[in-house]
Write a structure and sequence with these properties.
Shape: globular
Helix content: 25-40%
Largest sheet: 6 strands, mixed
Oligomer: single chain
CATH superfamily of the largest domain: von Willebrand factor, type A domain
Strand content: 25-35%
CATH class of the largest domain: Alpha Beta
Structural class: alpha+beta
CATH topology of the largest domain: Rossmann fold
Number of strands: 25
Number of helices: 11
Length: 572
């Protein structure tokens, strides 16, 4: 959910810093209050899937947390002839549509090289037909860490080159794919080695359950790593204004980690496999041995709740909505029809469908919560791109001033239209991030994408570096803040100010430090001769090179600067 800023000048007779209240009788200073407008993108279609383009502001109703809010800005679809923009009221400016930006996110951790190659060969051939000259595209790969392969660009030659490289690169998912394929066979072999109906059979089911649990833990770790990196990357897009479409390419991601293996283990041991003709299946549901067995096949549903990642994906979606990022989740290859056979291991139709559904549930969740779309036909790359293009051309924008301040809470959204027979797609929630957290996201945006602003004319200098014994270098960074750019308040014979410095660094291995933050009180004589205040900070960086990003926030004014500097360390 993008925030539009409006700054209102409000008279203030005094200001309070971290310490004292400044003297009475001082001149009146302007205190700048930021009023945030939340923007909701809405796609409206009729029963046949065609866009509905003739709606006006009066047709829409918008709710936050179930309470109606006033639409303060309304923008009609840019694809409508001559794109009529209807103002919300007298004197209300209409929201300005930012350039269309598309991020292609390649999830190598959940994408088999074969399906990746097929998709990206098609993508390279068809993408041009869906892009306008001014459209910007970014390419990102993920294989445990996020790597920006191509920054936002209109350079089509560079885009095609990167897509060709990506089509032939990356085997990160092979080990995970092998694990997924073989785990069922391992469980079958455990059952096959046991004598059915005996105590040995009971122990075999214990082994099957143990294998399923261990597998679920491994898958859960991979999924958690994916969610964490996606959240970090999505928040790094804070530096790009306007709507952004993220085409997430994968073979699907399990919503409940290890669900297919757990259901297969249950099928082998709770009697259902016997009824389906699954070889080596037994019925342990009435066995007295269950009293001594810490794995009970009848409790699979309860056990799998600890491996459910829906909450994590929902938090990712709310962060994406905060920065107006819509997910278009593209499944490069659906699970093949195994006809009940994986490497000679027979499973039931129910287990196979559970595995397929589970990997698609995550894609549907992300798309639905962010107002995008889940695109599940691996052969229809062109149709997927057309869907994204249509949404950006035929969507409405509604903006409102939230009734609550930036409280850090999740807020649910609902849009209604007074017309029967239509379907709506829009962001279902957003998180009202405090200003400090949004600044931290912008620091990451400066660090990863070079999204810089410097209204305070701050200078950033790396003066020297020192090498540590563990291979970590310490970069000594000096932040020079011009005094004439800060709001300073007179008190007796001094001028007082307050600014906050945010710092983060990234190394050559794409590993990033947390964003550090420190508020610095400033006191200078009224007759000062210094031109700038210098703040020094040490930044640890592992490797031979990296980068550091800094934000400087004037606490008494309304300005924030974002800067970035490359680091070339000894030996680099």
């Amino acid at each position: 959910m993008r925030y539009l800023k409006r700054f209102l000048a409000v008279g203030a007779a005094s200001a309070i810093l971290a310490g004292p209240v400044y003297g009475q009788g001082q001149p009146v200073f302007d205190e700048f209050v930021s009023v945030e407008l939340v923007v909701v993108d809405v796609v409206v279609q009729d029963g046949t899937g065609e866009p509905v383009l003739d709606l006006t502001e009066d047709d829409f109703r918008l709710f936050q947390d179930g309470v109606a809010v006033e639409i303060s800005q309304f923008t009609a679809p840019p694809g409508r002839a001559r794109a009529a923009v209807a103002p919300a009221g007298a004197g209300t400016p209409s929201a300005t549509l930012a350039p269309r930006r598309i991020v292609i996110f390649i999830d190598n951790l959940h994408l088999h090289p074969n399906s990746k190659r097929r998709v990206f060969e098609k993508l390279g051939r068809t993408l041009d037909g869906h892009l306008a000259d001014e459209d910007e595209v970014m390419v990102v790969s993920f294989g445990g860490t996020t790597r920006v392969e191509l920054e936002m660009t209109t350079n089509r030659r560079a885009l095609k080159s990167v897509l060709r490289e990506q089509a032939d690169s990356g085997a990160v998912s092979l080990l995970a794919s092998y694990d997924e394929m073989r785990i069922l066979e391992v469980m079958q072999q455990i059952r096959f080695s046991a004598n059915q109906g005996t105590e040995l059979g009971t122990q075999a089911c214990l082994g099957v359950g143990t294998v399923a649990h261990s597998h679920a833990q491994q898958v859960y770790g991979r999924v958690q790593a994916t969610v964490s990196e996606l959240r970090r990357f999505v928040n790094s897009l804070a530096g790009y204004e306007g709507p952004k479409m993220l085409l997430h390419v994968s073979d699907g991601i399990p919503l409940v980690a290890g669900s297919e293996a757990y259901h297969y283990a249950t099928e082998l041991c709770d009697g259902t496999g016997l009824n389906k003709g699954i070889p080596n299946a037994v019925d342990m549901s009435n066995s007295n041995a269950l009293r001594y067995n810490y794995w009970d096949p009848t409790q699979t549903a309860a056990t799998l709740r600890e491996f459910d990642t829906a909450d994590e994906w929902s938090r990712l979606a709310s962060d994406a909505n905060t920065y107006q990022v819509s997910f278009y989740t593209f499944q490069a290859e659906r699970p093949s029809n195994r006809s009940g056979n994986v490497d000679g291991t027979r499973t039931s139709f129910d287990v196979e469908k559970e595995g397929e559904r589970n990997k698609q549930d995550t894609l549907f969740l992300l798309a639905d919560e962010t107002g995008g779309a889940a695109l599940l036909d691996a052969k229809e790359v062109d149709s997927a791109l057309q869907r994204m293009s249509d949404d950006s051309r035929f969507g409405y924008q509604l903006a409102f001033e939230p009734p609550t301040a930036s409280d850090g809470r999740l807020h649910r959204l609902r849009v209604e239209v007074d017309r029967p027979g239509i379907d709506l797609r829009y962001r279902k929630s957003y998180r009202s991030k405090p200003l400090e957290e949004r600044i931290e996201d912008r620091v990451v945006s400066a660090l990863l994408h070079g999204r810089l602003e410097n209204p305070l004319a701050v200078r950033l200098d790396v003066t020297e570096t020192a090498a540590g014994k563990d291979g970590t270098h310490t970069a000594h960074v000096r932040v020079r803040v011009p005094l004439d750019q800060l709001v300073l308040l007179p008190e007796d014979d001094v001028l007082r100010g307050l600014f906050t410095v945010f710092v983060a660094a990234v190394n050559e291995f794409e590993q990033m430090t947390p964003v550090g933050r420190r508020t610095v009180p400033l006191s200078v004589p009224i007759t000062h001769t210094e031109e700038a205040f210098v703040y020094a900070v040490d930044v640890p960086v592992r490797g031979a090179k990296g980068a550091v990003a800094v934000a400087v926030q004037d606490q008494l004014g309304a300005e924030i600067s974002y800067l970035r500097e490359n680091l070339q360390l000894p030996g680099g």
